[in-house]
Amino acid sequence: MDVLSELFLPIDVDCIKRIPISQRLPDDNIRWIGNSEGTFQVKDAYRFALGNEENATSSTGVDNIWQQLWKLKLPPKVLEFAWRACWEALPHKANLCTKKVLTESSCFRCGATEHTFHVLKDSIDLLDEFHKAGSKPKERHTRSKSKWNPPPREVMKLNFDAAINADYGRVGVGVVARNDQGKVMAAISNTILQEWGAEMVEVPTAKRAVKLAKNQGWRKVIVEGDAANIIKALTCQANMSTYVQMMVEDMLADVSYLDCITFNFCFRECNEVAHRLAKWAVTSFCDEVWLGEGPSWILYVVVSDIASVN
User: What domains sit in the chain, N to C, each tagged with a CATH number?
Assistant: First the structure.
């Protein structure tokens, strides 16, 4: 800490302290910090050139509009036309007069000045008429309520979740292990002192679930959580940001002792027990409560009661 304080500003020292260290000590590599994939993209560089993504959005005031525009499922030439119209770049008479191409800006039909809105007036009227004719009440699709499903025989399912208390720089960890009958076999609730983001804290929480399986001697496990991006990274379906990906790779390199491990995504209502354990830890600031054969039987009863209905 003395060396860091001597070399860096306090704000940089805080950032350095939050960098997780890999257990495998892999070779260094260059990563682009402009996006979560770590690969360079021109649009991210453009935002950095304007300052940063937040400043770019707030300074122009229309960044969200462009995002919505380019996401529309329309032919590229239509999107480009709309973009040009928004930037007053259409070759109507008013613009051509500005560029000294024409000397007369009057509309040949009505005599009014031919500007962007005047040119698009008929199109706007027709579009409005189309929307009114085809408007129907929107059907609301709601996802049916899911519930926790037990694992196959001789397999243990470990649900994990994390909760953050930014005011105190603490992360709450919640892990619950249940067998094929839905019986709670063990659970963990503890806090760690760390100022990580939401995605980063999910990885060490999942790792704590795997460590519990190792300590209990379970060889076939399902590790389940409601952090979709982390589950995709653990199943090698996506690459995360630099630090998160490194932590994921560390974890995957440390599960060789298991005969079988599967990572599953579940919705929050299926992960209620782990979620409550994590929230309880971060509000009570407990160092660690291990629920298993004997200790902390009062909380064990509470967890078992929650698990029975979730």
Answer: 72-133 (no CATH), 156-309 (3.30.420.10)
Residue-wise pLDDT tens digits, 64-97: 677 888 888 888 888 888 888 888 888 888 888 8
* Residue 301 pLDDT > 80: no
How big is the chain by its Cα radius of gyration, in Å?
A: 28
Element (H, E) at 172: strand 170-178
Q: Which amino acid is at 80?
A: E
The rounded distance, in Å, linking the Cα atoms of 154 and 199 is 31
- Burial of residue 171 (CB within 10 Å: 0-12, 13-18, 19+) is buried
306 vs 310: CA distance, rounded Å:
6
What pairing do the DSSP bridges indicate for beta strands 156-165 and 184-193?
unpaired
Confirm if 171 and 287 have CB atoms less than 8 A apart. Answer: no
Residue 185 to residue 293: CA distance in whole angstroms: 8
Q: What does the pLDDT look like over 194-250, one tens digit per residue?
A: 667 777 888 889 999 999 999 899 999 999 999 998 898 888 877 766 778 888 888
Both tokens of residue 81? 């036309």
Residue 61's pLDDT band, with cuts at 50, 70 and 90, is very low
Whether the Cβ atoms of residue 229 and residue 211 lie closer than 8 Å to each other? no
